Amino acid sequence: MKASDLFLKCLEAQGVKTIYGVPGEENADLMISLLNSPIKFIQTRHEQTASFMAEMHGRLTGIPGVCLATLGPGATNLMTGVAQANMDNAPLVAIIGQADSSRLHKESHQNMDSVSMFKPITKWATTIREADSIPEVIAKAFKIATSGIPGAVLIELPEDLASHETNNPVLKSHTHGLSIGTTPELVQEVLNLISQAKKPILLLGDGAVREEADFEIRKLMDLTGLYAAYTFMGKGVIPHNHEKSLHCIGLGMKDFIVQAFEESDCVIAIGYDMVEYPPAKWNVGVSKKIVHINSECAEVDAHYMPDLELVGSIKIIIAQLNEKIELDKNNQKYFVNNFYFKTMQEKIRADVRSDLSDARFPMTPKRILQDLRSTLRDQDILISDVGAHKMWVARQYGAMQSKTCFISNGFCSMGGSMPGALEAKRLKPDLNIVAVCGDGGFMMSIQALATGVAEKIGFVVLLWDDGNYGLIKWKQEMHFGKYSHIDLKNQDLAEISQAFGAHAVRLKTSEDLIPELKKAFEIKDRPSVIVIPVDYSENMRLFEHLKEAVK
């Protein structure tokens, strides 16, 4: 069997149904072998779109998304999405071509040490040195990508090896769905800490969403009365309107939620990773006991030295806590009835819910997100790009369940929302999928529109247009009182979108948003772009408001 044929059969055995990428000379054998494979290849016009699509596939399914590029510039173009998948904990397998192995020892056309380049941004990066090792390499890659906290893996295939003959059989690794809990002794120690604490609080992170531990965590809150805050990447694991929700933490400035953590003396961190929000930002105020519940041990940080670590399946560990509470005849000792957090929640809710019906135009961030929330169903999906809008999505948008609001806050790259929405809509065609992006991020992945048109995929883009790098302007204003080199001088972004074949409109009043959203959701065979002039003077108003309200 030809090595490239075996390579694809090994991917098929791992459950791969789609590869995203751009063809090249050095991956030509794989491309030709795809003609005889059930795996679908989606041409993405740019490798960055391929890696962002693969990342979203991994996020939504738990099965690694697979992206493909050639060597040299193809490989470097792939890196941003690969790095985001790795730092944001999404399983992904990247495949790149490489020069003929006979010229790897010398300077030659497009030849570089790609494996060394990818090592810092993957869990594992390797090159295939002989065709017979392909089954083991691929099985190992998928096992590593999905084990513990998921991440990215790189496989490099030199072009001459792809054409070699091999008779080795396909192997399949089995790691998806491993179920490991913790010990009864550790469960009891956690419950003892909760019963002894005066102001215990839950911090919910990306891992809780990744495992979709919604039911287990909500039950724990019901049994214990614990209040919870969630990170940007933890949104949805409890509903934003849950009676014990303290909303989203991580805005980058002191707010009421940080103030609540200042008072807490015990933090139970569930699925929390430090890339989401540095512990130095929330481990402030009174001395705290910390419980770490995640699928891997905690990173070492002076501000995050857990008293207890429970490592395994988050869902199973929380279920064990719930079971122990229910079996304990004296289970009321674990119930926390803290009026401080109730008062704080009322302040937070009033603050977040204010000024939602502001009819100004250009539109305010709060009004945009209120109208979007009122139009989307609970199970529909919002994918936020990176920019000033990301901060508003985190603060204002009310997610109701896991995997319905995606905000990259690890690697935090611009340009990922449209490829992510494209893939989400391809996987879940019956849901409404919305990419929220700024004018800066939009231009970084505009090629995703071309792929969406070619594949007839009807995702929706809400493009917040202010003519600036809005988040950079906001941060510069906060720190320096002035800003520098943030102007974008945009062309007509609706007309550009139409030229790609997308449906596109530019709003003229704030009342137009909901009707245009509903119209866009009815368009199933191409992307839709709604350009919204946005009033980002609200950014500094929020900063000044919180500075005054939270001392």
Task: Show the helix and strand layout.
Elements: H1 3-13, E1 18-21, H2 28-33, E2 40-43, H3 47-61, E3 65-69, H4 73-87, E4 92-98, H5 114-118, E5 124-127, H6 134-146, E6 152-158, H7 159-162, H8 184-196, E7 200-204, H9 206-210, H10 214-224, E8 227-230, E9 245-248, H11 256-263, E10 266-270, H12 279-282, E11 289-294, E12 308-311, H13 314-327, H14 339-352, H15 365-375, E13 381-384, H16 388-396, E14 405-407, H17 417-427, E15 433-438, H18 439-444, H19 447-455, E16 460-465, H20 470-480, H21 493-499, E17 503-506, H22 513-521, E18 528-533, H23 537-549
Parallel strand pairs: 1-2, 1-3, 3-4, 4-6, 5-6, 7-8, 7-10, 8-9, 10-11, 11-12, 13-14, 13-15, 15-16, 16-18, 17-18
Helix pairs in contact: 1-6, 3-4, 3-17, 8-13, 10-13, 15-16, 15-22
Task: Write a structural description.
- This protein is an alpha/beta fold and 551 residues long.
- Helix content is 41%, strand content 16%.
- It contains 23 helices and 18 strands.
- Helix 8 (184-196) crosses helix 13 (314-327) and helix 15 (365-375) crosses helix 22 (513-521).
- It is globular and about 70 Å long.
Explain briefly what this protein structure is.
The chain has 551 residues and is an alpha/beta fold. It has 23 helices and 18 strands. Strands 2-1-3-4-6-5 form a six-stranded parallel sheet, with helices on both faces.
Fill in the keyword field for this structure.
23 helices; 41% helix; single chain; 6-stranded parallel sheet; 551 residues
Please report the number of helical segments: 23
Q: What is the typical, i.e. mean, pLDDT?
A: 93
Shape: globular
Helix content: 40-55%
Q: How far apart are the termini?
A: 70 Å
Give the strand content. Answer: 15-25%
Model regions low in confidence, pLDDT < 50 over at least 5 residues:
none
Number of strands: 18
Quaternary structure annotation:
single chain
Largest sheet, strands/sense/barrel: 6 strands, parallel
Structural class: alpha/beta
The strands making up the biggest β-sheet line up spatially as 2-1-3-4-6-5
Rg (CA only): 24 Å
